[in-house]
Here is the input.
Amino acid sequence: MTHHKPILASLTGGKTQRTPCWFMRQAGRYLPEYREVRSSVPDFLSLCYTPKKAAEVTLQPIYRYGMDGAILFSDILVIPDALGQPVRFVEKEGPRLDKITSLKQIDALDVSRTRIHLAPVAETIGRVVPELPDHVTMLGFAGAPWTVACYMLQGRGKEFSEAIQIARAQPALVAALFEKIIPATVSYLQMQIEAGVEALQLFDSWAGLVPDDLFETLVTAPNAKIVAAIRASHPHTPIIGFAKDIGARLTGYARQLGCQGIGIGMDMTMKQARALVGNDVVLQGNLDPELLAINLPEALKQAHIILEDMRDQPFIFNLGHGMVPHCPPEHLAALMQVIRQE
Ligand code: CP3
Here is the structure.
C-alpha cells in the first residue's frame, strides 16, 4: 500500500503523485513568527526544552507553506548537553562547550541521563503530531557522531581542523568519545520514534572535512552502527543519511549504511549523486540556500533543473544545507509554488 504521506510513501518505496518536499532549518530565524517566540525565551536551548514553544515553532513553517515534512525543533547539540557536557549558545556566535581533552572527562559522561534530560523533546513530538495536516510526515533527527564530536572536542567552531588533529593524534580518545555518543544517540532516536516521529535524518554536517584515511572510522562505521541499531529496534522507521559534501565517497557511505534516503549537499549535482548511489535509494536535495536567499530567479531556475533531473525517480526536494536567516520568507513561498506545479 502506498502511504498517503508523500515523504513516507517515497521512503518506503511507494509512488508519489507529486514531488515531496521539506527544507532543512525550515523553522528558524528567517521567519518573523519564529523570532517572536525566540525572543520570549532567554536562550536557544531553553526553546528546545520548552515543549509548548518548541511544538509551536515546529508547526510554524507547516502552517505558512504546507511542506510535506515537519522537522522536530531541537538541535544536534542536545546530546552533549544530555551527556553532561553543558552547551550554551552565544547570540550571533554559536555554540560554546568546555572542550573535552581527557579520557577522565569522557568517563564522566553519563549515557543513562539521555532520556531523562531529553524528555521535553519527546513531549514536543507528542504535541506536534496531533496537529499535523494529513499529508505531513513527522521527521526526527540527530547529529552523527563525528559532527557532534567536532563540537565536543573543539568547543566551538566551523573549520574543525583541531578536531581532525585530535582524531589523528589521539584515536583512542575519539573512539572512547564515540562509545558515549553512539548509545546516547540511539537512545534519543528510539525515544523520538516512540513519541511519534515517522522518519529520521542523521546529520553528518562536517563529514566532508574528514580525510580519506579516517573516513571509515569517523563517518561510515559510526553512522552504520546507529542505522543498524535503529533498524533492529524499529525496522519500519525509514532513515535519511546526510553526510554533507563527501563527494565520490557517497557510493560506499550509501551502500554501507543501507538507509532508505540519502541527503545531498552542494558539492555535486543531483544527477551526479544518482550516478554514485544507483536507482534504489531515495535522494534528497539540494538547492543552494544562499542562492534562494539572494537570487530568487536563478534559484527557481536551478529548482526546475533539479526537478527535471530527478523526474520519475525516488526523490525528496530539499536544500543542500539549512535555510539561512537572511532569506526573505516569500522566496520559500515562490519555491514551494515551483515544486507544487511540477
Ligand atoms: O528547522 C529545523 O531544521 C529544525 C531544527 C534544527 C536546528 N538545528 C535548530 C537551530 C536542526 C535540524 C538543527 C541541526 C543542527 N544544529 C546541525 C546540523 C545541520 C546543519 O546545519 O549542518 C548543526 C551543525 C547544528 C548545530 C548548531 N545549532 C549551530 C552550529 C548553531 C549556531 C549557528 C546558527 O545557525 O545559529 C545552532 C543554532 C540553531 N539550531 C538555530 C536553530 C533554529 C538558531 C539559533 C537561534 O534561534 O538563536
In short: The radius of gyration is 19 Å. The CA atoms of residues 96 and 156 lie 5 Å apart. The first helix runs from residue 6 to 11. The longest strand covers residues 137-143.
